[in-house]
User: Fold Guanylate kinase from Sediminibacillus halophilus.
Amino acid sequence: MIKEKGILFILSGPSGVGKGTVRKALFDRDTELKYSISMTTRGKREGEVEGIDYFYKSRDEFEELINGNRLLEYAEYVGNYYGTPRDYVEETLESGKDVFLEIEVQGALQVKENFPQGVFIFLFPPSLEELANRIINRGTETEDIVKNRLTEAKKEIEMMDAYDYVVVNDQIETAVDKIQAIVKSEHCKRNRVAKQYKKVLEAELG
Assistant:
């Protein structure tokens, strides 16, 4: 029996491109994927569950993990740390499940440094004009923030070369189709499966 390890997929792209929406639509379709649970030092909110919403840690515990290189990426927002725990990801992959991480560009580049065997997917806006409309339509940002976000988005788009695949988020369903096709093709890549297949054949041939 050939037991395949899971693959870590990283979905990333500029702010406002619709990463969360695409990820939710993908998970509605594909129940086999495991969402990467983040770790945080912020307090648990009402209704949140340890190991489902987040892994909750004290600041000291989190910093110990940083120093021990046990996080694939981390950042600090408003006085709290957030990060992706290496152990959870590796254990899930070992069990044969694919792990899916939806993250900002800076975080994705950290993951690439710490886990280069991951598959990096860049979600691309149909146009910068469309990206601006999406940010404005959220109705939560001032004009200055919209300008800053667009400037940042242009810089992030220039980092596209660090990724393995680019998917244009024009229609959500089409974007999800493409991501599912990427997942399937990655599981058929020779350099991923050849070692496992050869081991099984050698065992069978004795």
The first strand starts at residue 8 and ends at 12. Helices lie at 19-29, 59-67, 86-94, 105-114, 128-137, 143-157, 172-187, 190-205. The chain has two domains: 1-33+98-206, 37-97. The mean pLDDT is 89.
